[in-house]
UniProtKB/TrEMBL annotation, chain A:
This is NADH-quinone oxidoreductase subunit I. Its EC number is 7.1.1.-. The keyword Repeat applies. [4Fe-4S] cluster 2 binds at residues 69, 104, 107, 110. The keyword Transmembrane helix does not apply. Its main location: membrane. Gene3D superfamilies: 3.30.70.3270. Keywords: 4Fe-4S, Cell membrane, Iron, Iron-sulfur, Membrane, Metal-binding, NAD, Oxidoreductase, Quinone, Repeat, Translocase, Ubiquinone. It comes from Aeromicrobium terrae. Its cofactor is [4Fe-4S] cluster.
UniProtKB/TrEMBL annotation, chain B:
InterPro entries: 2Fe-2S_ferredoxin-like_sf (IPR036010), 2Fe-2S_ferredoxin-type (IPR001041), Asp_de-COase-like_dom_sf (IPR009010), Mopterin_OxRdtase (IPR006656), Mopterin_OxRdtase_4Fe-4S_dom (IPR006963), NADH_UbQ_OxRdtase_75kDa_su_CS (IPR000283), NADH_UbQ_OxRdtase_ferredoxin (IPR054351), NADH_UbQ_OxRdtase_Gsu (IPR010228). The keyword Iron applies. GO terms for biological process: ATP synthesis coupled electron transport. Residues 14-98 form the 2Fe-2S ferredoxin-type domain. This is NADH-quinone oxidoreductase. NCBIfam families: NuoG, PRK07860.1. Residues 100-139 form the 4Fe-4S His(Cys)3-ligated-type domain. Keywords: 2Fe-2S, 4Fe-4S, Iron, Iron-sulfur, Metal-binding, NAD, Oxidoreductase, Quinone, Translocase. GO terms for molecular function: 2 iron, 2 sulfur cluster binding; 4 iron, 4 sulfur cluster binding; metal ion binding; NADH dehydrogenase (ubiquinone) activity; NADH dehydrogenase activity; quinone binding. Residues 238-294 form the 4Fe-4S Mo/W bis-MGD-type domain. Its EC number is 7.1.1.-. NDH-1 shuttles electrons from NADH, via FMN and iron-sulfur (Fe-S) centers, to quinones in the respiratory chain. Couples the redox reaction to proton translocation (for every two electrons transferred, four hydrogen ions are translocated across the cytoplasmic membrane), and thus conserves the redox energy in a proton gradient.
Length: 195, 793
């Protein structure tokens, strides 16, 4: 193959021209892990199991997330709430909840499947480890942190005796002394939810 | 299963031709339109319709348009196809071709969903729910109902085991019809009316039926669930394996659902020839016994200090082989729970390796007459009486058998047939609830006197006689049953209580019988088997039966025992058996720890049926092979362990896997030579009772203290109460008030039950054999004489 004049003379100049121009542009390299840049707001990161405002779990152990999962990364076992031990409103709760992040492809189909919006995704993306066992997240790893006003289950239904009221959006019947505290106790939606 | 139920095999059927969706189809007279449509591949949605229940037309989901009812006129409105019989020339248009039918079905579905809660995510039926599925296929996508749904407090217990979520119910009446038509326990019924209509029970009468679990399975929504399975898993993460129930000799087809190596539930399989679509609650819920804490996981060998300590398989097999080789004579007790393949391995081990005929599967009361009866009439026969024959018989005579408690599938067949006119008679001391439900007649007799009653009975030639294993305690009864069959031309079948009993007979786990029904006493039969097995000769002396094996082991005349799956308290004399297992060198093959394993010198853990393949032989002689549900390489079937012992002793059983054992059984084949003579025991005279003496009638209730039901407390809570039944005069003579406590006692011990008046003859009492007290532990059984007294002993 014979090189044309354009290829031998012009192309190197054009190529180095790109290099030269870039030297005067803003650097796009992110200094991860020294500087952490926020993700896009709807980035699919680690899952979170949300809570009702009184701290009860939203998960009812229905396993629809596990059914929807194309990677078979989720394992759920349901169980009955009892009079003495209540973890969620209604009859059923997720006794075992595991997500295997070696399998999870963070596609979000589980989020779509969840009938109670118990499962959502956070923006946390640091999901690497050096062993298998630690990458299987248990329910305790996935549950949302307790916000002010929330009580760690098991406990009674604090919002209403009828579990339907939870789904109708009823919130805690708390009457704090000043409105400022009220705002703290009852934040509009848990973090990560509906992000 | 579509139209097969109405169709005989040989009878000519009148065919009727009609047109469904433009397709001409000919079906037997009396077929319902909904099933005729199935034949051309059109599935009409339905909830209340069930092929084994009578049509009711309750849910109205199966509406079709009938432009011509066969008489040239159309029906003015859509008709329920599940109650509409076909007529010649009828024209039917289903939802496939008719907009009217489709709209009618969608309307019905909308009505059904008006009050149905959308709690599918927490409902056990979600994922396998006919309402869910048919709402998707035949309903509207969006609900127009915006008002508040009717709710009920949920769930309520209709029994300890069965839970009812009333708001999910679509009032199809499948459960109530099943209870009334099939099980005969109409404890649930539709109550109230209008929107408040609901399934319910009477306040003081919970749904205590032996067949209650079937209502869960046929419920087309999630209204009925079991406390046992509630919220345990979802259908889509279960792995289903067809199998065979191990709790009785019926061979019911079941489906075992497991998840992550753990059985979650069992459902009825569909086998029209055996159990149709029903199983007993014992078959449904009795699966947790294999996962109890006392499960043996590793071989144990008794060390020099006399302690059992864990050992490796090779060490344990070698220890077993050493002990057996050193012993002066070995007896083999196999129990009644083995698969045919495992029983065959015991049988061959005894004959070829141990050189003895001292093998007996009967871990219960037994007699020489019974062994002769089995050899003469039962062994190496197949399907001489089947479930279908029971339905077609002119009458059925039960002797020493209570099918409702001991063989649920037979009971349901007999009850079905009795509703169609079959006469059921039972030779027993009183009319049990099961017999009453079959509209049966009682031929009243005193326990132990069944022979005389059999001699007095007249039967037609198209009758069937079913004899239970209890007759072993009634001298002369088997002989009399054979005489009656001979005299009347009626067919006779033996119904054992345990799943492995018939298989053990076929594979020669009897002292007088070799595999394939070959009599030990017959030199020709021995030579035939020796040739088939490729051995020089087989032991020719008829062996010892269970009682003699136990007796001789206790007296140190038998050096060692190989025991597989035997509970000491089931044996005829438990106290003697305890001495025997203490005295002899015992090799125990067990699933779970029990008295035998605690006394044994070598304990070899074996697989329960759920972890191995095998074959159960039903009372009919039908082979019911099944595969392993859970695949656990460390869980070995008995035959693999026995092959290991044989190898250690320098022999080769010729098989190490279930498949090889099956091939070996086939190769051995049945004996086609001379059968042994039928037993001819004399009819015993009447027993003279002393003061305070009564004769016991007893059998095991279905739900009792048997270890196969361990881990199922809610199921056990549905058991019938353990009561003592006697007539008023007998109770009065002993000074017992009805409802007060009554005690039966003998030299060994006593047992106390609340007393109840029933139609027993004078001087006879009925008590359950293993509810609260195992009667064998006080040396009492069917036909034994005990003392009856009031109050607690």
């Amino acid at each position: 193959m014979t090189n044309t004049v354009r290829e031998t003379l012009w192309d190197p100049i054009a190529g180095f021209g790109v290099t030269f121009r870039t030297m005067f542009k803003k650097v796009v390299t992110e200094q991860y892990p020294f500087e952490k840049v926020p993700t896009a707001p709807r980035f699919h990161g680690r899952h979170q199991l949300n809570r009702w405002p009184d701290g009860l779990e939203k998960c009812i152990g229905c396993e629809l997330c596990a059914w929807a999962c194309p990677a078979d990364a989720i394992y759920v076992e349901g169980a009955s709430n009892t009079e003495d031990e209540r973890f969620s409103p209604g009859e059923r709760y997720g006794r075992v909840y595991q997500i295997n992040y070696l399998r999870c492809i963070l596609c979000g189909l589980c989020i779509e499947a969840c009938p109670t919006r118990a499962l959502t995704m956070t923006n946390e993306y640091e999901l690497a480890d050096d062993n298998r066992a630690d990458l299987i997240y248990e329910k305790s790893d996935l549950l949302a942190p307790l916000l002010p006003g929330m009580v760690e289950p098991p406990h009674e239904m604090l919002i209403s005796d009828d579990h339907h009221d939870y789904y109708k959006g009823k919130t805690l019947p708390l009457l704090p002394a000043d409105p400022a505290a009220d705002a703290k106790v009852n934040p509009p939606g848990a973090p990560g939810e509906d992000s | 299963m579509t139209i097969e139920a109405t169709q005989g095999t040989a009878e000519a059927v009148e065919l009727i031709t009609l047109t469904i969706d433009g397709v001409e189809v000919s079906v037997p007279k009396g077929t319902l339109v909904i099933r005729a449509a199935e034949l051309i591949g059109v599935e009409i949605p339905r909830f209340c319709d069930h092929p084994l229940l009578e049509p009711v037309g309750a849910c109205r989901q199966c509406l079709v348009e009938v432009p011509d009812a066969g008489n040239g006129r159309g029906m003015p409105k859509p008709q329920a196809s599940c109650t509409l019989e076909v007529a010649p020339g009828m024209v039917v248009q289903t939802q496939v071709t008719s907009e009217v039918a489709d709209k009618a079905q969608q309307g019905t579905m909308e009505f059904l969903l008006v009050n149905h809660p959308l709690d599918c995510p927490v409902c056990d039926k979600g994922g396998e729910c006919p309402l869910q599925n048919q709402a998707m296929s035949h309903g509207r996508g969006e609900s127009r109902f915006v008002e508040t749904k009717r709710t009920f407090p949920k769930p309520i217990n209709v029994s300890e085991q069965i839970l009812l979520d009333r708001e999910r119910c679509v009032l199809c009446a499948r459960c109530t019809r099943f209870s009334e038509q099939i099980a005969g326990d109409p404890f649930i019924e539709l109550l109230e009316r209008g929107p408040q209509q609901q399934v319910g029970i009477a306040d003081d009468q919970p749904f205590h039926s032996y067949f209650s679990g079937n209502t869960i399975q046929i419920c087309p929504v999630g209204a009925l669930t079991s406390a046992d399975y509630r919220f345990r898993s979802r259908p889509f993460d279960l792995v289903s394996t067809p199998s065979v129930a191990e709790h009785d000799a019926c061979g019911s087809a079941i489906r075992v659902d497991h998840r992550r190596g753990k059985v979650m539930r069992r459902l009825a399989g569909d086998d029209p020839e055996v159990n149709e679509e029903w199983i007993t609650d014992k078959d449904r819920f009795g699966f947790t016994w294999t996962a109890q804490d006392d499960r043996l996981r590793t071989p144990l060998v008794r060390n020099e200090d006399g302690e059992l300590e864990p050992a490796s398989w090779p060490a344990a097999l070698a220890a077993a082989a050493r002990g057996l080789a050193a012993a002066d004579g070995v007896g083999v007790l196999t129990g009644g729970h083995l698969t045919a393949e495992d029983a065959f391995a015991y049988s061959k081990l005894a004959r070829v390796v141990l050189g003895t005929n001292d093998i007996d599967f009967r871990a219960r009361a037994h007699s020489e007459e019974e062994a002769a009866f089995l050899a003469a009439h039962v062994a190496a026969t197949r399907l001489t009486v089947t479930y279908r024959d029971l339905e077609k018989a002119g009458s059925v005579l039960l002797v020493g058998l209570e099918p409702e408690d001991e063989a649920g599938a037979i009971f349901l067949r007999l009850r079905k047939a009795s509703r169609n006119g079959l006469t059921v008679r039972s030779i027993a001391a009183h009319a049990s609830r099961g017999l009453t439900k079959m509209n049966g007649e009682l031929v009243a007799t005193v326990p132990g006197q069944e022979a005389a009653a059999l001699d007095a009975v007249q039967l037609e030639a198209d009758s069937v006689i079913l004899v239970g294993e209890r007759l072993a305690t009634s001298p002369g009864a088997y002989s009399a049953a054979l005489r009656l069959a001979e005299r009347s031309g009626a067919r006779l079948a033996w119904v054992p209580r345990r799943a492995g009993d018939r298989g053990a007979v076929e594979t020669g786990c009897l002292p007088s019988l070799l595999p394939g029904g070959r009599p030990v006493a017959d030199a020709e039969a021995r030579a035939d088997l020796a040739a088939a097995w490729g051995v020089e000769s087989l032991p020719s002396r008829v062996g010892r039966d269970t009682t003699q094996i136990v007796e001789d082991a206790a007296k140190n005349r038998l050096g060692a025992l190989v025991v597989g799956g035997v509970e000491v308290d089931d044996l005829p004399d438990p106290a003697r058996a305890r001495e025997a297992i203490e005295a002899a060198f015992v090799v125990s093959l067990e699933v779970r720890e029990n008295e035998v394993t605690r006394a044994a010198d070598v304990v070899l853990p074996v697989a329960p049926p759920v972890e191995k393949a095998g074959t159960f032989v039903t009372w009919e002689g039908r082979l019911r092979p099944f595969d392993a549900v859970l695949s656990l390489p460390a869980s070995l079937p008995d035959l693999r362990v026995l092959a290991g012992i044989a190898e250690e002793m320098g022999h080769d059983l010729g098989f190490r896997t279930v498949a090889e054992a099956r091939a070996a059984i086939t190769e051995t084949g049945p004996w086609d030579g001379q059968r042994t003579a039928a037993p001819d025991a004399p009819v015993p005279g009447a027993v003279k009772l002393g003061k305070g003496d009564v004769v016991l009638e007893t059998w095991r209730q279905m739900i009792d203290d048997g270890r196969g039901q361990d881990g199922q407390d809610k199921y056990r809570a549905t058991a019938r109460p353990a009561v003592l039944r006697a007539n008023a005069a007998t109770l009065q003579a002993a000074g017992i008030e009805p409802g007060g406590s009554a005690t039966i006692s003998n030299k060994t011990g006593s047992a106390t039950f609340p007393a109840e008046v029933a139609d027993l003859p004078d001087g006879v009492v009925w008590v359950p054999a293993n509810s609260g007290t195992n009667l064998r532990s006080i040396n009492a059984g069917h036909g034994t004489v005990v003392q009856l007294s009031g109050g607690n002993a």
